[in-house]
Queue: 2 jobs
Job 1
Amino acid sequence: MHRMDQAYALLEAECRDRGVDLDAAARRLAELEVETPSWGYGDSGTRFKVFKQAGVPRNAFEKIDDAAVVHRLTGACPSVAIHIPWDKVDDYRALAQHARDSGLRIGAVNPNLFQDDDYMLGSITNVRPEIRRKAIQHMLECVDIMREVGSTVLSLWVPDGTNYPGQGDIRRRKRWLEEALREVYDALDPDMRLLIEYKFFEPAFYHTDLADWGMAYLAAEKLGPKAQVLVDTGHHPQGTNVEHIVAVLLDEGRLGGFHFNSRKYADDDLIVGAIHPYELFLIFAEIVAAERSGDQRVAQTARAIAYMIDQSHNIEPKIPAMIRSVCNIQTQFAKALLVPWDLLRERQEQNDVLGAEAVLRETFELDVRPLLWRIREERGLPVDPMKAFAESGYMGAISSRGIGGSGWS
Amino acid sequence: MHRMDQAYALLEAECRDRGVDLDAAARRLAELEVETPSWGYGDSGTRFKVFKQAGVPRNAFEKIDDAAVVHRLTGACPSVAIHIPWDKVDDYRALAQHARDSGLRIGAVNPNLFQDDDYMLGSITNVRPEIRRKAIQHMLECVDIMREVGSTVLSLWVPDGTNYPGQGDIRRRKRWLEEALREVYDALDPDMRLLIEYKFFEPAFYHTDLADWGMAYLAAEKLGPKAQVLVDTGHHPQGTNVEHIVAVLLDEGRLGGFHFNSRKYADDDLIVGAIHPYELFLIFAEIVAAERSGDQRVAQTARAIAYMIDQSHNIEPKIPAMIRSVCNIQTQFAKALLVPWDLLRERQEQNDVLGAEAVLRETFELDVRPLLWRIREERGLPVDPMKAFAESGYMGAISSRGIGGSGWS
Amino acid sequence: MHRMDQAYALLEAECRDRGVDLDAAARRLAELEVETPSWGYGDSGTRFKVFKQAGVPRNAFEKIDDAAVVHRLTGACPSVAIHIPWDKVDDYRALAQHARDSGLRIGAVNPNLFQDDDYMLGSITNVRPEIRRKAIQHMLECVDIMREVGSTVLSLWVPDGTNYPGQGDIRRRKRWLEEALREVYDALDPDMRLLIEYKFFEPAFYHTDLADWGMAYLAAEKLGPKAQVLVDTGHHPQGTNVEHIVAVLLDEGRLGGFHFNSRKYADDDLIVGAIHPYELFLIFAEIVAAERSGDQRVAQTARAIAYMIDQSHNIEPKIPAMIRSVCNIQTQFAKALLVPWDLLRERQEQNDVLGAEAVLRETFELDVRPLLWRIREERGLPVDPMKAFAESGYMGAISSRGIGGSGWS
Amino acid sequence: MHRMDQAYALLEAECRDRGVDLDAAARRLAELEVETPSWGYGDSGTRFKVFKQAGVPRNAFEKIDDAAVVHRLTGACPSVAIHIPWDKVDDYRALAQHARDSGLRIGAVNPNLFQDDDYMLGSITNVRPEIRRKAIQHMLECVDIMREVGSTVLSLWVPDGTNYPGQGDIRRRKRWLEEALREVYDALDPDMRLLIEYKFFEPAFYHTDLADWGMAYLAAEKLGPKAQVLVDTGHHPQGTNVEHIVAVLLDEGRLGGFHFNSRKYADDDLIVGAIHPYELFLIFAEIVAAERSGDQRVAQTARAIAYMIDQSHNIEPKIPAMIRSVCNIQTQFAKALLVPWDLLRERQEQNDVLGAEAVLRETFELDVRPLLWRIREERGLPVDPMKAFAESGYMGAISSRGIGGSGWS
């Protein structure tokens, strides 16, 4: 511990030299809230195989139990996203109460438009009106559930698309999509938001109705201010500059939230920060810059971002994978909070390419463990949440759940 | 020729069976106009080497001469795009007159925002206001030139971007870009259009200020109805469904034009239709469908598209490469005109995935040479423009121009 | 039919002009054999959902029944690949007899190294020796099954890989892989071949032990002449020139077979020829050129290629999707057979870039339906296999199988 | 400086806890040699524009002067690669002497097969034998130059390829390539190595004769032990796991060297470590693991790797960009040296996915500045080479060279 004190003092001195307020960074970092998804605690896999793990929760209540453990150890995850019908229960108020009893609240409600047999050829863009109606009703039902559980975010992924040229009429499907979203939007309460996700491909392999941020933006822009775009970090073509998209959406007041995960190839849904940590840092750097912006719309948009994790833990134990993700997010967010913005601006103004680049990269290269340690210690949290979990005995306790718990179904 | 008559009769019979009006297709095909770029007649290359070809035009007038040959042989290329300052002349009215004398008109005017030394770190998004001003003035000068030459299209590629994280402030640059475009837009005459191009990367390698169709759309949408998006077929991430983007922009009334070329990797600028002919067909299928749309905005947008070629003939002779591109465009457009739309709609309505797919693919597999032959013969054009060029003696005639003609500078 | 005669005569005349022997092409085309996979008749899907179709075969025998229908209608699919344990039966000789009774033979045997719970962290590259042993035993069992069913091809996809940096020791896994393959190779009979597949990613998302053709080649080259590489057309990074890889492997005598399908994004497993038909043609052009090569090793390698389909029909009916794939393969192979090779060589020798390119592209643009029609009619096959299937009543007949037949498990 | 002592002590304590020998790491790090390229000091750019910088060296001698500055300040760059004919001089012994006088030696000699007009359609794979001969002669001349300057590495990039299907005969070109390399290989002295580079695309846009590591490996394997593969970190398809390729080539004794740079899109040639620093670390982790391997061939191969930088500084000042690259390489190599290998192996053996991943990632997250500081201070080098260069006055001194120095020509 003495070492960590020393390390903290060194970091503090360095920040001082760079004109960075470490206390302010610590305060902001301590406020960061990351929502975990109920389905992240259940079994998942690839199309080839779902490997069942022991101790996986068997229902929505047990998923909340697991989410509560993550919050208890990290102090950063006070809400849990639910997915309907995976988390369908008879009494949603009871579910919300269970969350509160566990120190949590229900976060985003996620409709499911991809697992009903009727949706094989599309849900809200299906050529058959009765299927579009069914899908809209499901979303309206989710809005009702939001009221029951006290959620303010409807997190919508429309998986619709086609597998072959000619299979569908792209423009007609676009109109149906707009109609459906309009009806859902109009059903929202004033304090509710609709976050519209986009995805490059999968499960559709020729065209996806909402394939990129531009299409999601277009939909949101037509609906109104309560509609915003949700960025899943794994839903882009290779090479895409995600932080650029983040900056553009922030500038337009249309960035509503994130689904964090990491990827090397497609929508790999790996642990956040495991593949390209610098990219995650650069995304947070855009956000922290926006939070500090003099443009009120931009700053408010940034401060209202819903940070959510969306991963598929196919081969690793799920709860520690979630804790690891939260810690990785905290690590990169912490680094972004230590960027010396005035220095960066100064070098940009001087067209000092190397100097400006160095400001961001060198900030990324800092070791921020002392800062994480401080905010954990100050709040009475374990300084090493991974270790604390391993020692908690929780894995042993849930083994009684057996194999074959809840999955993506 | 007898064979072609037979082949035409067979195609006609097949179209009749499929409920396709071959005469109407022939009429529409005959009207197709494809603009060729003055710079496509000059030397170009990769960053490693520009291989100089003999006979390359030495100035804007000679480029128009070459473009006139392409039009004479294809009947489909009545306009030529110019690029300022590559085509800078003292007297633009004289240049326009030379075009008219050659049977052409001046098409789009293209400003150059990437070759002045001042633009090394950006033109309209440069941190230095005097450089932004210079770039804006250059675009305003291009609007003046449009008036001189009778052009109605300002075709704008903003190559600005950064090579390193931190080098620039993305949101600030976005605001500068919007400011600059606003000033140019306001200077347009009522019958002028501003077509905004986007590009995934190159010459910037970290972020490009207008990186995708969404960013170009956003800019156009803020400006007003005279601003539209220009799609260069080579400016997308790998795997992008370009025809989907085309459909979305058509539906929004924001598709202004194309820069046609083909690519396998990045912005390879190869001859149109040389790498992925089916994709080109699918793009035209979206356009033809839009031309037939009952939604007037959609149909008018489709009919007003500016079809332009933008290629870099690094190793092949330039005039025949241009003729080849025009023919390839005609070929795929012809196929798109033969799609049996009612049948397609019927199968889509029945959720007949294989049947609907077959409609498009089988149309693509048709041999449309008889149709091309007919529209050429009817108009007194050579039925084989490539052969006609080879036999024209033009290559020999221009060899007197020598080596070292005009290039990208 | 009269029309088709006319069309055939026109094609014949054109081939004569181009110096192409249409009869020889017809003979070669008629010999083309394409193997269909037993699993292609069963249910499949994405990781999000397997949509169950009615009439799906319930066991290996019924899969052979479906494969027999495809062969009956196309005359091109005399063998069916099996997958162990999906096609596990008590009596493999009975299965082979059932195939023979249905006019088929058993083709490649495919081991499964990805669905046993033990394989979660690897099969033949697993750090635990008992799991590697188990996987090797499974492959040896497949060699035994080959003897029972009279198969000569062991078609091996090693799905092993890791999801995170550090998870595995890449070089150590490579050595284990080589050890395992050696043992299997040594168990092969003299007339058996081991075809080694590679894949860019999925189900592993950080590294895949056999990630590209180079790694598969390396393994094959160490084993000996009976080991060759299997190219799945959907297993490459975006932009990869697959026909180039095909040419290289042919030149080295190491191209053993194909898994045909098509893709736009990742390993989409769509119907062959549905997304990028020109690429399929170019692959066949390399093969036909190799078949004609004066280098005996090259020619023999080309003639011994095992053509296999490997698709995932998630939303389309499976039997017609298979027929469609076979027809698309025949179409592009037919085109490749019509390439005027001497003309191509002549233009290549003259460094006539445009002329040489035109030879291939124009061959692709031919309508080869008359040729397909001829070889079908000559052999008493339906000239339109898709229509013949629709009219056969087979779909109705198998509806009694109900929903919930065999899938990837 | 007191702070750095403290930081060093903390790092030392942490290493001790993790079982890592910091002294050994420091020794190995101090030995790391990184070769800089003469052309990296000259003007370069994109195909759109080469922005000329002031002070760029005007000839090979001045490039060596600049390289010497980089070595003087970093202590890590004792050799400089030359490129013929860009560095053509009358007296190569004089050039080598100038290098020695500047504290350097000449490293790899790079032939140029892409800038002669004759090479437009290929050099060693050109259909015309006299051009193939010319290209071979040029490479043989480079071997002679190697003798003159005392170089032991022939670093060969074959840029040959085609832009269009059909343009060339892929297999025939492969044979010509093999013939040419054979002749060059046979001319090498016993202590010379031929490093064969590969590249996914550019300047060829349809097929590149040496397109991937497998093709380069194949060529090297046929030649003999003195031929090895050169990995340019920017020459792969998107998503490629470069460290995997590195591991495979190490395992085969065929990894000869690197061209380091970074990329986000294509062959962007940006400063090493600027875009994806974790990937660079993972590459070095494979190398350090191989250096420690019990397999002597693997270990020797790793220790003999030629580390070379190959960048294109289009918009940033060239000398500091080179220093920055060297420092980034040192940073990631330093981190790789601090991996606790025994712990990693232990967790791999336990199939502890999260634990094993954490070992690498946490090592990457260390701040290794104290280690860099130590090895610089011990050797009397500036602890901050970038700052030392800025303060050296060298930029001012070379401004007398003016604008318009040497570039890629």
Note: Strands of chain C lie at 36-37, 79-84, 105-111, 153-156, 161-162, 193-197, 207-208, 227-232, 255-260, 306-309.
Job 2
Amino acid sequence: MKWQPPLQPPSPSTHQNHSNHMIEKETAETHRPDSDHDSIRSRFEKMIRDAQDSVCAAIEAADGGAKFKEDVWSRPGGGGGISRVLQDGAVWEKAGVNVSVVYGVMPPEAFRAANPVNAAENGNFKPEPVPFFAAGVSSVLHPKNPFAPTLHFNYRYFENDARKGNVKLMLTFFLFKVQKNACDKFDPSFYPRFKKWCDDYFYIKHRNERRGLGGIFFDDLNDYDQEMLLSFATECANSVVDAYIPIIERRKDTPFTEQNKAWQQLRRGRYVEFNLVYDRGTTFGLKTGGRIESILVSLPLTARWEYDHKPEEGSEEWKLLDACINPKEWI
Amino acid sequence: MKWQPPLQPPSPSTHQNHSNHMIEKETAETHRPDSDHDSIRSRFEKMIRDAQDSVCAAIEAADGGAKFKEDVWSRPGGGGGISRVLQDGAVWEKAGVNVSVVYGVMPPEAFRAANPVNAAENGNFKPEPVPFFAAGVSSVLHPKNPFAPTLHFNYRYFENDARKGNVKLMLTFFLFKVQKNACDKFDPSFYPRFKKWCDDYFYIKHRNERRGLGGIFFDDLNDYDQEMLLSFATECANSVVDAYIPIIERRKDTPFTEQNKAWQQLRRGRYVEFNLVYDRGTTFGLKTGGRIESILVSLPLTARWEYDHKPEEGSEEWKLLDACINPKEWI
């Protein structure tokens, strides 16, 4: 029997089948590089699978009817994932929560796309395929009500020959206090640094606008202790439900006009522009031939582009746009 | 008085102001490289301005009420254009017809994006800014009725240090016969070559699908006589109205279901994916800091992404998708 990557959340019995021996024997070229249950890598993987389960359960409960549809997929080059999507619910127009654990070798262009700084600065970029291991949970939650915020979060663990064990986190909407509390538990410098990093990363250069507001972002934290980073990512993952769901409960039935809806749709268009043109995860996925429905599940159900739309100065829409152009200090 | 590029369709009197002397004196770095009325470049420019006028007039007449809104813009680096957009009409949800005449120096990355083959094959790529002159008319017409086809056309004249006077044409929907007739007048090899070129160019690699059907595409026809190419581009430009408007008249009131509309919106989503990820004109525009509203006016008013949507086998939607995956010979 050919060894299959653990696409379902691992149970003790399936774990026992993943001995190093079998792995080395069966997947010589794209070997799963680790099966030690206590390693950071294994514990990160367990954490993201737990996060997927708890976020999906909370979303279904808050939506009050719609259910996630699950797809389990494997990647020919090595690994696979679980995509869960809830579409056209009562509260969310599209909610995706995906886990993927993939490994193999990445083409040099994809390496460059995923590691622009590393490739340019370290000068150690080789035009050869690069072995990698990546595990992550990624979620985009697009509510129907234009006053209810879209949330994006993504926790990743990524290793390649040039970098070991960096952890990446992106949170992009309205979770200031909870984020700051999570950050402050670990390092008082985290929140201000990661808030600015988020404003810089989610920048739509051709618009001179950020895609969204209120997030934190970090990447390549190789100088920190791995145990601490795992705890930090776990803390952040566990705070999603508590931070986001109460806002949705407050906003999901707020009355809105056609104009409010059109504005939401225009901002959805910006989301599409950022993801297709700049987002490293998306461009990496497109270039490595990942599963396209999982990569693009982040796109909203619907989006809108009006020619030369400008919100009226002083309006709520104008204030939001202003904050996307000139980042604010929220706390 | 500083010399200004001719943003309005040139009249004899404004033309007289554009002597070579003034140009050389006033725009040393980004000089308008030509002001000879009889040159291919000048006649191409006149042709595209005439095409913009005639297409806009025909669209307004067929829409029966909505009017184009015109914006005249200039590009800091050199040149400018006229954007005309009709939005939320009776027949078209968004119709854009733009002329631009721009020149200056392009960053090396933009040169590579616009000339991937040239940069890779000729081996003469220099990591220095490259002077260029580009004139074109570009149009995207998105009707409301899902049975009425979207039309894209783009006629461009482009010169840089590496290439002189190539003419580019893209036509992408449902104009088989008229296109073939236009091609056959000039060279019997044109239609089959340019039809295949179109199927190859409008390819969404991450989907293994073409963006649309029924077009022709050509580029870099440097080996042909310039006069002939100008006549050919003019013939094609003049055939747009006769080829497209009758189809719209036939289809604009075809009854449709919510499902038909959702399918149209999903194809609009593919249009967005192609333009933001692959289209050379769009990526060139984003990288050279062009006027963003003119570059992205091609995006539809609304678009849709459903997770893992698959049309029912044998349905009309399925047949269209099949033709986007496996190009057909229409004539």
Note: DSSP finds twelve helices and ten strands in chain B.
